[in-house]
Amino acid sequence: MHFFSDHYNIILVIITTIMLGLSCGMVGPFLVLRKEALISDAMTHSTLPGLGVGFLLALSMGLNGGRFLPFLLLCSGITALLGALSVRWIINRTRLSQDVAIASVMSSFYGLGLVILSIIQSLETGNRAGLNSFLLGQVSGLTQQDLFMLTGIATLVLLLGIYNFKALRLLCFDPINAEFLGISKTKTENILLFLMISVICAGLKTVGLILILALLIIPPITARLWTDRSEVMFALSCAIAALACVNGVVVSGFFYDLPTGAIIVLSCAGFLFASLILSPIRRIINAQ
Amino acid sequence: MNIFMPLIVKDLSCRYAGQHDDVLSNVSFVANSGEIIGVLGPNGAGKSTLIKGVLDLIPHEGEVKFFGGALKDHKTKIAYIPQRSSIDWQFPVSALDVCLMGMYPRIGLLKRITKANREEAMSYLEQVKLADYARKQIGSLSGGQQQRVFMARALAQDADLLFLDEPMAGIDQTTQDLLFTLFKDLKAKGKTILIVHHHLQSAKEHFDRILLINKILISDGPPNETLSQENLAAVYGGITA
Fold first, then answer.
1. Which of A9, A83, A248, B215 is 20 to 30 A away from residue B187, measured at CA?
2. Which fold has domain A2-278?
3. What is the spatial distance between Cα A175 and Cα A33, in angstroms, rounded to a whole number?
């Protein structure tokens, strides 16, 4: 565990992790309230081909054997956007429903990603060991620059979310009336899309693309079990996600050699389970 | 108040994606300031479609003018209260939160909500007799109270043109009376109100004008004229409940 031998690095990792948790906890409730949880599933799976392409690009330019985080995040962000746009296009242009559109887009992009990863594996210079950590999540291996960059993205997401809170909440609650109440629907939808892509990409390395959906969805629904007020729901969601992230990093880093993403998601699930039993707002569970 | 006609609709036709026939064809009408207009017709006549088409919420053909201009230039002067079923009542907002949304255009979306804003919003909730329920989550309110929350939001918005889709559906008599009284107050202030409605008797009592529709505009005029036995028989097939 030489990675944690340096105190400065530990503090940096913890700060980054907390910020990532807070930003996921901030964006997640919008997805849940807008009933777009599954679109984010399509987006997370669509990051895989982007990771592959980013790796190949960096490799061809001789950057860190392909494992150059800015390229990986940028390319995965682009394919996540393509995934989201594909789902939207299918829904708008055909009579197919959202669930089938999501299922087809998600599996197609993921399949494409697996093909690109196999190609990378077969290259003599390619070492996809670094890419595997994006599937299940791992904190070690991040450089100080990576940590600064992730903290920066997370801070930006958090500030944008807080700054646009009223508009985003209105978009989720009453999209039909959004324009009549003075918000630009398209602009607000694009902000939300940007926030989704940013947290998904920033969280990829720590949580892994398969499990990041859980970090977006479980904290808000857990928070919802404790409050009827959206401001409190967002704050609780941030707190739960941040705690789960710190827990995942500490447990997987210090004590055992367990995958970080899985511990984070299990921590979230623990909060949810406890809340289902203890929550005062039982009627939400009973009603559905 | 605006010197232009609040609403002019010319040859409005609406058709849903993948369907061959228009749900609504060539509807033309105008709405004056200080007028309460009822939209009546049987199920599937296109009453809700008319409102959605006018508000550009669904694809449509024809020309619609708001206060002499385009919709985009007068959006915040328009309030739309959709059918109850289209709202997520589990959403974590209180009656006060929803009412405050009506003030967003004035507060500004990036500014914080102040105590003065809250007090103003409370005054609208008082007008619909919901002040005691301000902090309640909207799903915990009764149907009539929920309808009044959205009415309070329309008041907060100070809209000049109101569209309500079946506001009286499944609502107790007390709330119905309260809403009709509010409509009259708004009318006195020169506001224009379009209401999709089902009940013929209360339509006769409370509306200045009625648009009777059944895929096309059958009749447009004062209740006594539009709701003639002849028209009703043509539209409802003799069933005039």
1. B215
2. ABC transporter involved in vitamin B12 uptake, BtuC (1.10.3470)
3. 12
State pTM to two decimals.
0.89
Q: Where are the domains of chain A?
A: 2-278
Chain B residues near residue A183 by CB distance under 8 angstroms: 104, 109
Between chain A and chain B, the number of residue pairs with CB atoms below 8 A apart is 70
Q: Is the dihedral of CA A55, A58, A60, A63 positive or negative?
A: negative
Are B92 and A224 inside 8 Å of each other by CB?
yes
Residue recorded with tokens 């890419």 = A131
Where are the alpha helices (H) located in B7-163, listed in sequence order? Answer: 47-54, 95-101, 104-107, 115-127, 143-157
The answer to whether residues B196 and B47 touch, using CB atoms and an 8 Å cutoff, is yes
Bridge partner list, B193: B36, B162
Task: Say which residues have a Cβ less than 8 Å from residue B214's Cβ, sequence separation at least 6.
Answer: B41, B42, B45, B46, B234, B235
Of A221, A240, A219, A213, which is closest to residue A284 (Cα–Cα)? A221
Identity of the residue numbered B203: A
pLDDT in tens, B32-85: 999 999 999 888 888 889 999 999 988 888 889 999 888 888 888 999 998 888
Residue listed under structure tokens 């679109």: A39
Q: A 77-106 residues with CB below 8 A of B?
A: 95
Q: Which of B75, B110, B163 to mutate to test the interface with A (most CBs of A within 10 A)?
A: B75
Structure tokens belonging to residue B72: 């985009």
User: Coil, helix or strand for B60?
Assistant: strand
Q: How far apart are CA A21 and CA A19, in angstroms?
A: 5
Distance, in angstroms, between A181 CA and closest chain B CA? Answer: 6
pLDDT tens, position by position, B148-190: 999 999 999 999 999 999 988 888 888 899 999 999 999 999 9
For the beta sheet containing B60-66, the strands, ordered from the edge strand earlier in sequence to the opposite edge, are B24-31, B7-14, B60-66
What ipTM score was computed for the predicted complex, to two decimals? 0.89
Which tokens sit at A215? 């970090």
Which backbone phi and psi does B67 adopt, to 5 degrees?
50, 40
